[in-house]
Write a structure and sequence with these properties.
The complex is a heterodimer of chains A (about 260) and B (about 300).
Chain A lengths: L9 H17 L2 H29 L5 H18 L1 H12 L1 H7 L4 H31 L4 H29 L2 H17 L15 H5 L2 H14 L5 H27 L5
Chain B lengths: L1 E10 L2 E11 L4 E5 L6 H8 L7 E6 L2 E2 L4 H7 E4 L11 H11 L4 H15 L14 H15 L3 E5 L7 H16 L3 E6 L2 H7 L2 E6 L2 E6 L1 H6 L4 E8 L6 H6 L4 E7 L2 E7 L1 H14 L4 E7 L3 H9 L5
Parallel strand pairs in B: 3-8, 3-9, 6-7, 7-8
Antiparallel strand pairs in B: 1-2, 1-4, 4-5, 9-10, 11-13, 11-14, 12-13
The chains are: A mainly alpha (about 260), B alpha/beta (about 300).
The structure holds adenosine-5'-diphosphate and magnesium ion.
The site of magnesium ion has 4 residues of chain B, from α1.
Amino acid sequence: MKAQRHELSPLSVIWLLVERDLRTLVKSPWILINRTVFFVIQLFVFAVLVNKLVASTIPGFNYFDFYSVGAVVSTITSIAFIIGADLFEEEEMGLLDYLLSLPFGHSLFVFGRALGGAVRGLIYTAPMMLLVAFIDGYWSPAGILGSYVVLFVLATGISGLSITLAMVIRSENRFDVVIAMAELATVRVSAAIYPLYYIPQALQPIAAYSPVTSASDLIRWAILGNASGVGNLVILVLFVAIFFGLGSAFLFKRLEGGRFE
Amino acid sequence: MIEFKDVWKRFKGTDAVRGITCTIEDQEIFGLLGPNGAGKSTLIMTMSTVYRATSGEILVDGHSVNTEPGKVKELIGISFQDPKYDRILTAREILQWHAKVTGVEKGVREKRIDDVLTKFGLTFEARKRTWMLSGGTKKKIENAKIFVQRPKVAVFDEPTAYLDVPSRLLVWDMIDELRDEGSTVLLATNMMDEADRMSDRVGIVSKGEMVQVGTPDALKGTLKGRDIIEMTLEKPIPELPAEMKKIEDIQDAHFEGDTLVLLLSNGRELLPHVINIATAKGAKVQSVNLKQPSLEDVFLHYTGMKLA
Ligand SMILES: Nc1ncnc2c1ncn2[C@@H]1O[C@H](COP(=O)(O)OP(=O)(O)O)[C@@H](O)[C@H]1O
Ligand SMILES: [Mg+2]
């Protein structure tokens, strides 16, 4: 008779989904190298230059330190946004049909994918973060570990947001536009690469509650010792919870009407 | 047991499945036979929880696809019509991941993968990324997922498309083996010989409906007492079919190219008479063939269309 089938725990399912994203990442290392080179150039050419300009106008403000943290956060944000595009590609290849036929529920699928996207993002940015902490001269293991946790949580939320958008929009062209705008809104309208009080008045309330702002400030707090903690943590966690929930809720739409456009 | 109860699936503008009702018994190999676009794949996807039925109900071992999709997913394994896996991964990686995620015991995983790869002669190919493999090899890997998983309910959507003859025979044997071990098999195909060779029962699907269900022999029996005469002429004579239909025992007559095809009772006795009529009309008869109805003729009869 049939061989014994063994039950998978939710944790093993999540791990298997993450493993899948990792296997594909390992097969395309040049993307990783590309991102890192771009980051290093941005840091040592752009940031060093602007730091000199800023230093002459705002005495005592170390823009290089400020920017370097924001640059890591912006990078992981844009990497985390990619997961939605992955879903379109999977839809096109029919892979989504396969994944949805496997023995796990939709919420677990969305959560696993969001975590997969986050782990992927963290692998890209972990060396960058280390480099930043090192050259900023703040070298504490707890600080670095803390900043990894913050990056990871942020990337989970952004991945959830990206999955939600992919499920709701269902047309690849429209998705590309919306994602570009979402990325612009979360990264540019935030305190990632310029301080909050230099953002146009009208956008300041939005920027203040951007998860990218929260993540940047939390990391600055963890490794640089400035900015503040608790409020930002709350915003970040809420953000993850909301978009994980929405992502799973909207996945059912996929089952109603067949394929994406 | 799988029960389809008045299942409908509507996409924007098309009714792909139109009120299918049927029951598949445990350890049965059930063939869904129908031309491209008949709705076979849609029915399969709906049964597999990938699509939601527009109306109707499907029960797999008593579990509703609508209300307990999780239970259903644990029972089934699908070899999709178009191979569905990461093209960047190797066949071995794909099979390993599939085995893990479908809960194949750790102790037997690698052995099963090795066995299936060896049977398919893919031990070497299994190290390459799958996007560089041929269509036939990709299809074998898609089937291999299910032979490694060995699910309670195994679904194969056109499992031997793109395969050469030895590989087709191999896949058929492997499906038989799976059933002998206790699996229920749902097999969609547009190939007569496959449906005839594999199925305990065949459901003929046409334009989203299941027009006839039965064992291949029973289906052929519905045309009982009927013979088929195929008479190849030098060139077709347009008025000949009408002439033939005047004979009471001849139910149908039509040309397929240069061949006059007659569906009739008592073919043996009528054969000389039929040849005489053709010759009298000036036909040069090149060959004559008297045969029993095949599943293909049954299909033709119930759907009014040819498969290929
Ligand atoms: N996802 C889909 N969206 C819209 N129409 C579809 C979809 N899948 C199948 N169809 C349509 O449904 C009908 C049945 O298709 P299908 O189930 O693939 O048939 P078969 O597998 O028998 O060849 C076809 O007319 C096809 O174009
Ligand atoms: Mg099909």
